[in-house]
Amino acid sequence: MKPFLSLAPIAAGLLIVGAACTAAPSSTATPAANSGVAPSGQSSGSTTGIGAPTGSGGVSTDAARGMPAPQYASYSSSASPAYPGAMNTEGIWVTGTGKVTLAPDLAYLNLGVHTQEGTAQAARDKAAQAIDAIIAKLKSMGIAEADLHTTYFSLQPVYRYDQIFKEGSQYSQPVVIGYQVSNSLSVTVRDIAKVGQVIDASVAAGGDSTRVDGVSFTVDDQTSANSKAVELATKDALAKAQQFATLTGAKLGKLVYISETGANVPIYQDYAKGALAMAEVGAPAPTPISPGEMEVTISVQAVFAIE
Q: 81 versus 175: which is more confidently predicted?
């Protein structure tokens, strides 16, 4: 327990040194029941006695003697503990980081169709034909039904705004000139070597209505990579703690606390502009896609005692 010092006004004639926790009052004071020494900043409800908080509803021993309750100042010798169960901030605190580089093995392709026609029905029908053709083509290439799902659908009117002048006033009047439909599809490609072929086949099946909105990559199973990153982060923390101890002449004690403080999943890499551009020109060669590499990073915080 960390000591604190409470100083009452001189007129009160009190000088109290106590522990930074609720404790039984000194036998020299005779406060009401449930009295105790309240730590600085800690509310003790209706507790009365020395150190009872102002406005808590309790009556201090000074108030019982007809004197105004004194305001107490307090001092703590250490900051609040930064980890669960910590009693103080003594020790060697370190942060370790572990990084593992991975090669992506899973791709997400976002594509869809966009149509505009004079009527809502015509726009919907044209979009439906295009997206159905794309889905059929993807299935024929081995893409499973579970790896295809609609992410967005919209049917909206298209307006023209005419400028109207009437009785000295000008305003815009919307006029419906057609309807547009957008239907987006997310495709999981488990063989990333075929991503370019999947894009080209989708464009060929959907025609000019096809839109390619982006390609991203990740790792399907990151379990082993995460475990390795934790191992590296822990070793890094141990090495740093030993280095601090050596440099300062301290003796490294036992580990008293460790926790994972940060982690990130592999960064998704987006190739929307490049993929779309190649799709639109209709290049005879498959659209080139490069998945690159990504990292799994994990950090741990550790606290060691000093012997």
A: 175
Q: Kindly report the CA angle at 24 between 18 and 26, in degrees rounded to 5? A: 65
User: What secondary structure letter does DSSP report for 61?
Assistant: H
Amino acid code (one letter) for 1: M
> Hey, is 1 helix, strand or coil?
coil
First to last CA, the chain: 19
Phi, psi of 112 (to 5 degrees): 180, -165
Pairing of strands 294-306, 92-102: antiparallel
| Cα 217 to Cα 307: distance, rounded to the nearest angstrom | 48
Q: What is the pLDDT of residue 79?
A: 38
Q: Which residues pair with 170 in a beta bridge?
A: 165
DSSP character for 144?
-
Angle between helices 120-140 and 195-206 (to 10 degrees): 140
For residue range 97-139, list pLDDT tens digits in order. 999 999 999 999 999 999 999 999 999 999 999 999 999 999 9
CA angle 90-96-101, nearest 5°? 175
Q: Outline where DSSP puts E strands in the chain.
A: 3-7, 15-19, 92-102, 106-117, 148-166, 169-189, 210-218, 252-264, 294-306
- In the numeric block, the tokens 């982690």 are attached to 263
- Largest separation between any pair of C-alpha atoms in the chain: 98
- Contacts for 199 with CB less than 8 Å, ≥ 6 apart: 109, 111, 212, 215, 275, 278, 279, 287, 289
Write down the pLDDT at residue 239: 96
Using an 8 Å Cβ cutoff, are 92 and 257 in contact? no
Q: What is the pTM of this model?
A: 0.58
Position 196, amino acid: G
Rounded-to-5 percentages of helix, strand, coil across the chain: 30, 35, 35
